[in-house]
Amino acid sequence: MISYQNLPVLITGGAGFIGSNLAIRLVELGARVTIVDPVVAGCGGNPSNLAPVRNTITWIDRDISDAARFASAIREAKLIFNLAGEISHIHSMEFPERDLLINTVSQLRFLQVCAKENPGVRIVYAGTRQVYGKPDYLPMDEAHPIRPVDFNGVHKYAANMYHTMLSRSGHLDAVVLRLTNVYGPRMALQIPCQGFLSTFLRLTITGQGLQVFGDGKQLRDPLFVDDAVDAFLQAAKSKIRFREDRTYNIGGPQSLSLLEIAQTMARMGGNLPVTLREFPADRVSIDIGSYSTDSSAFRDSFGWRPRHSFEDGLATTLAYYRSNLHHYLDPNNPQPHCGLPEHLGIQHRLTYTAV
Amino acid sequence: MISYQNLPVLITGGAGFIGSNLAIRLVELGARVTIVDPVVAGCGGNPSNLAPVRNTITWIDRDISDAARFASAIREAKLIFNLAGEISHIHSMEFPERDLLINTVSQLRFLQVCAKENPGVRIVYAGTRQVYGKPDYLPMDEAHPIRPVDFNGVHKYAANMYHTMLSRSGHLDAVVLRLTNVYGPRMALQIPCQGFLSTFLRLTITGQGLQVFGDGKQLRDPLFVDDAVDAFLQAAKSKIRFREDRTYNIGGPQSLSLLEIAQTMARMGGNLPVTLREFPADRVSIDIGSYSTDSSAFRDSFGWRPRHSFEDGLATTLAYYRSNLHHYLDPNNPQPHCGLPEHLGIQHRLTYTAV
Lengths: 355, 355
Known about the structure:
By secondary structure, chain A is an alpha/beta fold. Chain A has helices at about 15-30, 70-75, 90-95, 95-115, 150-170, 195-205, 225-235, 260-270, 280-285, 295-300, 310-325, and strands spanning about 10, 30-35, 60, 80, 120-130, 175-180, 180-185, 210-215, 220, 225, 245-250, 255, 275, 350-355. The longest helix of chain A has 22 residues, at about 95-115.
C-alpha cells in the first residue's frame, strides 16, 4: 500500500461514526485530513468523535450539497472518502424527501463538483447492503438483484449509480463499498433508528436488558469499525483495476444470530437479561431476514480481511463508551431522540426554483 | 381482458407521446379518462396530441409533484398509467438536477399520495431500457445488470425502485414496463435530444437527408406506439400475479440496424439521401451500442406481442405527420429547440426549505 504521509485527503461525513474513525486513522498515518460535516440532526455526526484529532484536521462545516463553496478543498484532495449520508431506514420511511435530499440530491451536487474540479479523482463511497433487500441466497455477493425494501435503500442505490456511472464515463474513479452492519467506538448511541447494534449498545452500556424482535434467529455479520476503516484505506490506495461495476461487498468475520449478538453483549455488559418480543409493525416491512456477506471479491482483489472477532471488537467498544459516555448520552435527557426538525413539527419540502 | 367501459383511469404525462395515444385508445374503449400534464418545456407534451378527445377527457394542468392538489382524482381512479417524465438522455447530462426533479422527486411525491389516497391501486409505470446501459448480452432480459450510462437512467431507475418497493410492501400494486425505442404519431418532432427516431422522423417529414452516427450497424428494435399502448392496457387489467420484481421488458418485433432504419425512412419519405458521420463527442459516453429486447416474460405472462412491422408503423406515422405537421413543427421557427428554461439562461436549483 502506498504511503499516506502528507497526502491531502477529504472525508465527507467525517464527524460521523465511520468517518471519524477513518479520520483518526488517517491522521495517524500522516495524511493531511480535511473533513466536511455540518453535523446534520439525526445523521449520527458528533464533534466529540474527532476529539483526538481536532487540532490536526481541517473541518469544513458545510453540507456536501454546497460543494461549490469548498471547491478548492475538492481540487486539492488526492483521495476522497465519501461517507456523508443518513443511514436510518426508519427515518427514510417517515420522511422520504429528507432522505432523498441527504442521500441522493446532495451526492449529485457533490459529485458534479468533484468531476469538474478534480476530474478522475479516486473516491471511495460508503454504500450499504440495504440496497439488496431480502436475500435470495446467502452469503450475498455483488451479483444479487437490487431490491431495496425502504427509501433509504433506493436513495443510497441512486447515489451508488452516480458513482459508477460517472466513473464509467471517466469523470471520476470511484469504488463503492457495500457495508454490512458496522459497530464500534463513536457510533451514535442516543439516536433511535440507527440500527439494532446502536440500540443494543445503548442498552448494554446503561445496564438495561436487551430485547430481540421475533425469534432472534436472523443472522447478521457485524463488522468492527477498524476493519471497515481498513477496507476504505485499501480500496482508496489500490492500483488494482476495479471490476467494471466497481462495487464490493464488505462483511464481518462471523455469522451470528441476533440472539447470539444480544447474549454476547448482555454477558459482556454484566450479565444483563435478554428477552424476545414481537416484531413492531413499522419494522416488519423493512426487515430483510437473515443476512451474511460474501466479501470474496474484495478480499481477493485487495487482500483485505476483518481482523477482529465480535467479542474482541465489542470489548474495545464497551471500554470506549465507559470512558466517554457523556459525549454519547445526554445525562439530563437519556431517552433516545434524533432531533429531526420534522419531529419538532417543522415540515420541509424540496422545491426547484429559479436562482 | 376485463372491460374498460366507464372505468375511471388516470394518465400522468397524458399529453405526451405515448400518454396521448393511450388516452385516445382508452376513450375508444369507453373509459373515463383523466390526464395530468402541465406540458413541461422539453418533455414532449403537446396539447394537439389530445385533439380527438379534448372534449371527452378531464385535463388536470398540474405537475405530478402537486399530487396532493388532485388527491380526489387519484382516489377515484381504478387504474393509474404513470407516464410523466423526461426521456432525454442528453438533457439529463446537461441539467442533472432538472432530470432528478422530473423523474425522481416528482415520482416520489406522486406515489406517496397514491399510496395514501388509493392504497393498493394498480399502476403501470413507463420505465426504460436505458436503465440497463451497455448490454452484456442480447436480446436483453430483465435479469441483466442495471448499469445506466446517464443521469436519466439513474433517475428513471430510482423511480422504478419506488414502484416495486412500495408494491412489495403492499402500498401499491405497480408493474413497470421497460420500453425500447417507441415511435409513431404524436411523437415530438421539434425537440432535439428525444432520441434518434424523433430526429429521423423530423428530417424525413421535412424532406431532408438522414445522417447516421458511426457505421450505422448498431441494432435497435423500434416499437410502434399502438403496440406499446397494447402492452400498457394488458399489464393494467391483468389478474395474473406479477413476478416479484414486477418489471417487464417491452421490445419491438424486429432487430434493425440504425442504417436500415434510416434507409427505410428515407425510402418511404421519398428517396432521401442517407449519409454516415462520425459520432459527436457528447453522444459517445451515453451510447449503448446494439440493443434488442427479450420480451418473452411479458409475452408469456400477458399474451402480448407487437402486431406492427416497422414498415407498417412507419407508414401510419408518416401519414399522420403529413396531415398534422403544423402542430409538430413551428413553420416560423423550424429549427429544433427544446424551450428548456436553462437554455434560456434561467438557472434552477433544488432547495429543501421549511414550509
